[in-house]
Structure formats: C-alpha cells, structure tokens
C-alpha cells in the first residue's frame, strides 16, 4: 500500500518538478562522464610523457569529483527541502487520517529510493552515451591516434557514481525522517498559508549599507586588479575574497529595501497593473531571497571566470607553440655551479662541453643533429636588473614589492643571437661597438623595462660604457618554452663579453632526420638520458619541441576538462536552485493567483506578472556576477599572462553562449512550468 502511494506521489512529482529530476539526471550523467575519462584515455595511442600527463589529469579529476559530490549533495538536499515544504499539507492530511509519522517516513524512504534508482539509471545511460563522444574530444585535445577507437565503458566510474550518489540519497532520507519527526499537525496543515510579513527596511539604513557595500566591493576590485602585485601572502588573497563575499550579501540586502521603498513611493509605477502584487510576492520571501541570491551570484561568478580562464589558457598555449618552439632540441648546462666540494668526476662533467657530455652518453651530435648553433650567456657582478632600472627602481619596488631586483642580468653576444634568430626564423639585429639592446617577451616586464629607459640610457659592461640603441625592448628569446617567459636578455657587441663570466652553455639544433619516425627515434634517445646516471655528473639539460608540445597540450587539456567540469556543475547548481525555489513558491501561491482570476485579472496579465517575478530572481544575481567577472577575468588574465591571452575575447563569447543556453534554458523551463502550476486551480 505504502509502495503504491509512493509510486503515485513520484508520478505527480515528475509532472510538477521536472527540473528536479532533470537536474539529478544531468548531475549523474556529468559525474560519470568526467570520471570515465581514465577508461577513455586508456585506449589512446600516445607517448609515455603524454600518458603521464593523462594519468595526472585523471587523478586531479578524481579529487575534483569529491568536491563536486559535496556541491551536488547540497543541491539534492536543497531541492528535497523545497519538495518537502511543498507537500506539508499532504503530510498533514495523512496524519489527520490516522497515518503515523513512521509510515510517512517510509513513504518518503520509498520515494527517495525510487527517485535515486530512476535518476541513476537514466543518468548513467546518458553518461555512457555521451562518454563515447567525449572519447573523440579527449583524443582531439591530446592530438592522439583514434584508429583503435572502441566502445568505452568505465566500471570504475559506474561504481564511483553509484557510491557517491547513494551516500547523498542516504543523507537525504535521514534528513527527511528527522524533519517529519519534528513536524506538528497544525504546522503541516497551515504551512502554505505562512509567509513572512512585509517589512519595509529603513531606507536610510539601506542607503548607508549600500554605499558601504559598494565601497568595500570597489576596494576588493582594486586589490585584485591594480593592486594585484601586492597579493603576496595567502592572507592578502583571502582579504579581497572575503570583502567580495560580504559586500555581495550586503548589496542584495540593501537593494531589496531600497527598491521596495522606491517603488512603493512611486505611486504611478506601484499601482500600475500587477506591480504591487509582484512586489508583495518578492518581499514575502525576502530573507531567503537575499541569501540565495548571494550564493547564486558567487557561483555564477566562479562559473564565468573558470570557463573563460580555462578556455583562454588552452587557446593561448596552442597559439604560442609554433612561435616559441621553432626547432627540434636545445641542450643547456649551468657553468657557475661547480664548487670545490664536488667529486672530481662531477666537476669534470660540469666543465666539459655539451658535445663532450653527449658523446659520453653515446649521442653523436654530428650524426644526430643539424643546423646547430652553439653559444654562451654571460654575467657581470654588478650588472643586476636593478642596475638597468636606475632611479626607476624605487618606484618599481613600491608597485611590485616582491620583484627581485638583485638578480644578475644575462648577456649574449649579438653574433650568437643572430645565428640563433636565423635558426628560429625571427628578427636579427645590428649593434655598433658602443651600443646595447634588450630583448624580452614577458608583457609586464617589457612594460617595466620600457619605462626604465627614460631613466637609464647607458650601462657599464666589461669596463666600457654602452648606450641603448633602442629605448624599448625588442621581441626575442634564447630558449624554447611553451610560454612568453623571457624577462630580459642584454645583447652586446662581441668584444663586450671578453671580461665577463660564462654562466650557461647552450646548443640549439634540429634533428638530422626527414621523417617523423626518424625524429621520434632521436627524441627517444634524448628522453632516455633522464635515466642515465652519467647525466647527474654533467649538469646537462635538454628541451625538445615534442616535449613542449606534449606538455602544453596536456596542461591545456587538464585545465580545460577541470574548468568545464566545475563550470558546468556550478552553473547547473545555481540555475537549479533558482528554478526549484520559483517552482516551489509558484505551488505555494496557487491560491493567490486563483484569487486574482476571481477578481477579473486575465491570464495575460497574470503570466506577465509571473514572468517579471521569475526574471528578477534570475537576472539580479547574474548581473552582479557579470560585474564581478569583469574584474575577476582581468585578474585571471594577469595570472595567466605567461600563457598569452590572444583568444580571451573568443573564450568570453563562448562562455556567454554557454550561459545563455543553460542558464537561459533553466529560466524558460521554470517560467513554463510555473505557468502550468498556477493554472491548476
């Protein structure tokens, strides 16, 4: 009997609360989808280094899934709370007819179990289907061979999904049982008649709170944008975050009172149409609205920043690879790290040339490499970064207190750099005997150095004075990487380095092979150096184009997948919370809408009032979240500056489209479902 009653209730719940079931199913599908990536990547034909990155990605996603489970668990509990509230009168009738609280709890137990089974079954089915398409996407992200593509099913993801969601539903069942046990019959029967009193907050207090909140928020914005260089310690970072959270809550709290007062004072607007009714509806749940608005606003802010940053990093890193990794391999070694405490064999290894080190490893540079460029970098004891800034140093330290100005500048002969530039396919330069220039590509450092040229024109190098040929940094670099990380290299005439100290030795070259297979064979030899104990005694380091490409692609994929995972979950959660709240309130207010019809209000006006009410709930947190995101994305752009930001605008547009379809979709569905609910009476 109880089972049949539970089944009937579920059928009714599916009709009334389709968004709840849809969100649960979607949550299960997404959870399985991202946790099945380990099985999807297992069939990819990739190199060992890429496989290691994939393993790291799967481990990170597994950790993120724990956090996601808490978010989804909160969402399920939140939804259950509103569904229970919606059915208080129904439970009251059960108790009036003589049904005990134990039987009511068992009804809820059966309903929760059936909801869980249905959502798990359908969600897993959708997740398994989507995972097949995800396999193709994963392969494209890692540029892997999909010739061995097969149907993928992840037993591990299945088990994890069942366990995590099973725990969530057990918690929901326990909370429902406790809630039923605390209920009183009179409260259940009159629950939907209870509402908060319409309280108009003191307008002067609201104005003061609003101004204070805006000032707090403005200072938080300043800290994460213009003052981002001062964010050194964890406390420095947490302070603007705390300010942002508090000010967000205060803005919504004060706006609720200000808007209510303004509209009630504006009689022409207040008494126009159903505006007074709409305002009453909003104000009746004002406290809950403020809290939920604040939470949802912050979740939307995180969604926008996470998606935009993740997509920007992936695009920027992909765009930089061709420019920053133009040749096959670069060997380098430090020459200033040998001490008297070193063993003789290690000291000898350090002092030997790169060619000699490679020969000891059985690697012939003459046979394996071509287009070789061999050069050194130099330093001078008093030639520091601070020396190149001159009197501008004090101003720079005020703005960037953590900047290391005592680090020695690297110096390279102009002829060596031009050889390397021709190999790279970049610009070459010419210098007179008394000229120098600086090359750099790290944007913030370029800006500092360009400003410093107004203070410093000459440098003392090797006992001679040299003048700057250009009063700005020129683009260039001397070592391959995935990012723009060159903070500055000083180029000088060849004779200027005669008295300077050698600090690094570098050998840049292409592989002496015409096929991809031949290049990969040489690459494998170089990779094997890492496991050779001889390398420990040489201080030799190698960077290859293939390794940079694989690392960049892998990091971009990791960031993208984690960003998509969190972004989708946050967006769905925020939209679902709003939708469930509005649907629940629409159900509670059926009698009020029925009373409007009895008073002669037509359906068009009622639907318009409902649309405005729901739009306010959806738009308010989104608008403030977008404002937060304008500053948050600037901060993220600064942090990710080394990866480039050429595709930032495109990623923002993609994020906006994503928001429109998912958040806007929830809004439309909520409005349509609410409209159907209020027409039932």
Could you explain the architecture of this structure?
The chain is an alpha+beta fold and 681 residues long. 67% of the residues lie in helices and 8% in strands. It has helices at 2-16, 18-35, 37-42, 48-86, 88-96, 101-141, 155-182, 185-189, 203-224, 234-265, 267-270, 275-283, 286-324, 344-351, 354-360, 365-368, 385-389, 393-399, 414-424, 443-452, 516-528, 545-588, 590-598, 603-639, 648-678; strands spanning 329-334, 369-379, 410-413, 435-439, 458-461, 464-468, 489-492, 501-511, 540-544. The strands form 2 sheets. The chain has a 5-stranded mixed β-sheet. A 4-stranded antiparallel β-sheet has the order 2-8-1-9. Strand 5 and strand 6 form a beta hairpin. The longest helix has 44 residues, at 545-588. The radius of gyration is 33 Å and the shape is elongated.
Output the structural class: alpha+beta
Uncertain segments of ≥5 residues (pLDDT<50)?
194-198
User: What proportion of the residues form beta strands (DSSP E)?
Assistant: 5-15%
Tell me, rounded to a whole number, the average pLDDT.
Answer: 78
Distance between the termini: 28 Å
Number of helices: 25
For the largest beta-sheet, the strand count, sense and barrel status come to: 5 strands, mixed
Number of strands: 9
Could you state the oligomeric state of the chains shown?
Answer: single chain
Q: What is the general shape?
A: elongated
Indicate how many domains the architecture comprises: 3
Widest β-sheet, arrangement of strands: 3-7-4-6-5
């Amino acid at each position: 009997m109880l089972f049949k009653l539970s089944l009937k209730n579920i059928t009714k719940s599916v009709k009334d609360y389709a968004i709840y079931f849809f969100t649960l199913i979607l949550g299960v599908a997404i959870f399985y989808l991202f946790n099945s990536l380990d099985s999807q990547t297992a069939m990819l034909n990739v190199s060992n280094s890429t496989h290691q990155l994939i393993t790291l990605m799967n481990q990170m996603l597994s950790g993120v899934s724990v956090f996601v489970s808490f978010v989804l668990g909160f969402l399920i509990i939140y939804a259950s709370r509103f569904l229970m509230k919606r059915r208080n009168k129904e439970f009251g009738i059960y108790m009036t007819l003589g049904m005990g609280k134990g039987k009511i709890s068992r009804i809820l137990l059966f309903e929760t179990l059936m909801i869980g089974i249905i959502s798990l079954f359908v969600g897993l089915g959708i997740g398994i289907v989507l995972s097949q398409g995800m396999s193709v996407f994963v392969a494209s992200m890692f540029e892997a061979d999909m010739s061995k593509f097969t149907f993928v099913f992840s037993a591990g993801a299945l088990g994890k999904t069942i366990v995590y969601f099973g725990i969530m539903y057990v918690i929901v069942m326990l909370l429902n049982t406790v809630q039923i046990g605390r209920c009183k019959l009179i409260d259940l029967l009159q629950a939907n008649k209870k509402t908060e009193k319409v309280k108009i907050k003191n307008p002067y207090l609201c104005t003061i709170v609003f101004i204070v909140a805006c000032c707090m928020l403005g200072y938080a914005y300043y800290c994460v944008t213009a003052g981002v260089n001062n964010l050194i310690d964890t406390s420095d970072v947490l302070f603007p975050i705390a300010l942002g959270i508090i000010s967000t809550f205060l803005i919504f709290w004060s706006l609720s009172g200000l808007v209510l007062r303004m509209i009630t004072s504006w009689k022409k607007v207040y008494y126009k149409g159903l505006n007074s009714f709409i305002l009453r509806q909003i104000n009746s749940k004002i406290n809950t609205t403020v809290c939920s608005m604040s939470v949802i606003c912050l979740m939307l802010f995180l969604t926008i920043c996470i998606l935009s940053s993740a997509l920007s990093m992936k695009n920027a890193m992909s765009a930089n690879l061709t420019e920053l990794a133009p040749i096959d391999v670069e060997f380098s070694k430090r020459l200033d790290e040998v001490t008297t405490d070193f063993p003789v064999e290690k000291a000898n290894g350090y002092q030997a040339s790169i060619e000699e080190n490679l020969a000891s490893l059985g690697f012939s540079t003459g046979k394996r490499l071509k287009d070789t460029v061999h050069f050194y970098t130099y330093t001078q004891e008093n030639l520091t970064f601070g020396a190149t800034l001159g009197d501008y140093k004090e101003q720079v330290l005020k703005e960037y207190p953590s900047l290391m100005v005592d680090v020695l500048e690297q110096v390279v002969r102009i002829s060596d750099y031009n050889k390397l530039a021709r190999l790279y396919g970049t610009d070459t330069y010419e210098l007179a005997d008394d000229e120098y220039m600086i090359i750099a590509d790290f944007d913030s450092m370029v800006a500092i150095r360009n400003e410093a040229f107004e203070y410093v024109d000459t440098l003392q190098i090797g006992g001679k004075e040299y003048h700057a040929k250009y009063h700005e940094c020129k683009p260039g670099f001397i070592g391959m990487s995935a990012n723009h990380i060159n903070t500055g290299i000083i180029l000088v005439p060849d004779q200027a380095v005669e008295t300077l100290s050698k600090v690094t030795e570098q050998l840049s070259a292409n592989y002496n092979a015409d096929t991809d297979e031949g290049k990969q064979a040489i690459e494998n030899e170089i990779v094997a150096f890492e496991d050779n104990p001889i390398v420990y005694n040489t201080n030799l380091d190698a960077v290859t184009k293939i390794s940079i490409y694989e690392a960049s692609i892998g990091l971009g994929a990791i960031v993208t997948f984690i960003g998509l995972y969190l972004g989708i979950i946050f967006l769905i959660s925020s939209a679902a919370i709003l939708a469930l709240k509005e649907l629940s309130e629409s159900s509670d207010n059926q009698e009020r809408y029925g009373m409007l019809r009895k008073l002669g209000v037509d359906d068009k006006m009622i639907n318009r009032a409902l649309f405005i009410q729901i739009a306010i709930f959806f738009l308010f947190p989104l608008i403030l979240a977008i404002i937060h995101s304008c500053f948050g994305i600037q901060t993220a752009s600064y942090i990710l500056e080394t990866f480039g930001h050429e595709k930032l605008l495109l990623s923002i547009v993609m994020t906006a489209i994503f928001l429109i379809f998912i958040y806007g979709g929830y809004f439309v569905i909520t409005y349509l479902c609410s409209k159907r609910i209020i027409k039932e009476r």
